[in-house]
Design a protein that fits this description.
alpha/beta; Rossmann fold; 2 domains; ten-stranded mixed sheet; 10 helices
Length: 273
């Protein structure tokens, strides 16, 4: 999948600017352009923006940031519902990746955490990188790739490994299950060995996480190994469905400090560092 455009919603909060820094790092590495989207929210502007500066003025100031130097940027200011506007602009502009924060200023806090975040993640036609509050961009050394053995997507998994291997990052295949007979571990080991053979990359290991709570079990494991990114491939049904329940997404996004890359099951993943 050719990586050309990144869409990043910005409301001038610290978290949204952090997400923009992630987008800038990806753009620097790939030569992609960034579309900076501000969705006008009168309440948030009245409460949080000092000096009565217009969104356009604030965006122009933001464009002067050192981390955006050399990157082709486009500014969009729109009005409307947050998830709907993000999805509409991503489709209209044929973006390859959406990078968004989980917390915002003013009304954006309640708008971006939970229901609206889950809508963007679940309905976007391209991968979405969700950047938690407090996350700071750094080189990727460890990538946790969540696996659903009941709904295998071997081609996408293989493509992901091929992309990550050029960064020489370790790939950790993780499957969350309460299986106690060892069948899941055997299947995961077979998948790992197959991927090593097909991709020619040895830095792939696997782990069955024994837990009844998929998001929490995965998050706990990712934190324990100090993962830099967690990757999930979505499915119409299966264990991943729970992640896109608004309450589950809210819990995961709010508590984790690890960026979450969600890849639609019908798309080839995008990964640039």
């Amino acid at each position: 999948m050719k990586f050309k455009k990144i869409l990043t919603p910005v409301d001038f909060s610290e978290n949204s600017v952090s997400a923009l820094r992630y987008a800038a790092a990806f753009a620097q590495a790939s030569g992609a352009g960034i579309i900076i989207l501000h969705i006008a929210d009168p309440d948030a502007l009245d409460n949080d923006l000092k000096g009565n500066l217009s969104p356009e003025h604030l965006l122009e100031i933001l464009l002067k940031s050192d981390f955006l130097t050399g990157i082709k940027t486009t500014i969009l200011v729109a009005k409307g519902g947050i998830p709907g506007t993000i999805l509409e602009e991503s489709r209209k502009n044929k973006v390859d990746l959406i990078v968004m924060g989980t917390q915002g200023s003013g009304n954006m806090i309640r708008n971006l955490i939970g229901t609206n975040t889950s809508h963007v993640v679940a309905l976007a036609q391209c991968p979405v990188l969700v950047v938690p509050n407090g996350a700071i961009y750094q080189s990727v050394r460890k990538v946790v790739l969540a696996i659903d053995l009941e709904h295998r997507t071997d081609t996408i998994i293989e493509d992901m490994v091929n992309l990550v291997k050029f960064q020489k990052a370790a790939v950790l295949l993780a499957y969350v299950s309460m299986d106690s007979d060892g069948q899941s571990e055997r299947e995961l080991n077979e998948l790992t060995n197959s991927l090593r053979h097909k991709t020619g990359y040895d830095r792939i290991v696997c782990k069955v996480i024994h837990s009844s709570e998929f998001p929490m079990g995965l998050e706990s494991y990712a934190k324990s190994i100090e993962a830099d990114v967690v990757v999930m491939i979505t499915h119409h049904r299966g264990v991943f469905e729970s992640v896109f329940d608004p309450s589950q997404t809210k819990i995961y996004s709010y508590h984790t400090s690890i960026p979450l890359l969600v890849v639609p099951h019908h798309k080839t993943p995008v990964f640039f560092f």
